[in-house]
Each structure stands twice: as structure tokens, then as C-alpha cells.
Amino acid sequence: MPINIVLKDQSIKVNLTEELTIYSVMEFRDALVGHLQPGVDISVDLSQVTEVDTAGLQWLLALKGLNVVQRVEFCHHSKAVIDALELSGLSGTFDDTIVISSEVRL
Q: For residue 56, is it left (φ>0), alpha (ψ between -120 and 50) or beta?
């Protein structure tokens, strides 16, 4: 899973591409953990995620629950992410606005 992490002041912007599954969550965790520090804001762009399984959802829940960071935001949810959240009943759990683009509605 290609992961793009951009650090700026007290914020981390993460762009995930391809899948967020049992086969890739450890790679995501390992890439991110070295950048975590108290008070940092994390923004995770999910627009390029093509597949999500329960391991991926568990990692998103764990990331959202981190006490060391100030705020974790998920944005630009892909259709695969929206479908996984709805199927699991977790749509409202993250307190993030889910914007459905016209491309996703098809």
C-alpha cells in the first residue's frame, strides 16, 4: 500500500492508496507511528482506498482513539470506505463528515 505522509508544524497529512486490509494495515501503522507526537493533528485522506476489511476498520478505530494526538480526521471517503462503514454500522462512529461525490453515487 503506497502511503504518502506530509508533516507540517503540528499536523500530519496522510494519503492512503489502494487497499486498507489485513495485508496492509501493519505497513500503514509502521509508517505512521514514527511521526506521532503529543498534540499533533492527523488528517487521513481516504479517497484512493479501493478496499477495506474489518482489520482496516479496526485500525481506523484505533487511530481515532489515540490519546497522544490532538485530533484525527478522516476525509474524502472513497466508495469502498463508505460501503464498509455502512455495512459494519460504523457510519456515525468517527464524527467525520462523509461527503459523497457525484462519482460515488453511481
A: alpha
Of 89, 23, 7, 82, which Cα lies nearest the Cα of 56?
Answer: 23
C-alpha 10/C-alpha 94 separation (Å) is 21
Q: 3-105: CATH homologous superfamily?
A: STAS domain (3.30.750.24)
> How far is residue 11's CA from residue 50's CA, in Å, rounded to a whole number?
25
Cβ-contact 49, 85 below 8 angstroms = no
Q: pLDDT category, 35, cuts 50, 70, 90? A: confident
Q: Where are the beta strands (DSSP E) in the chain?
A: 3-8, 11-20, 41-52, 71-75
* DSSP state for residue 47 in the 8-state scheme: E
Q: For residues 18 and 48, is the Cβ–Cβ distance under 8 A? A: yes
pTM of the model: 0.83
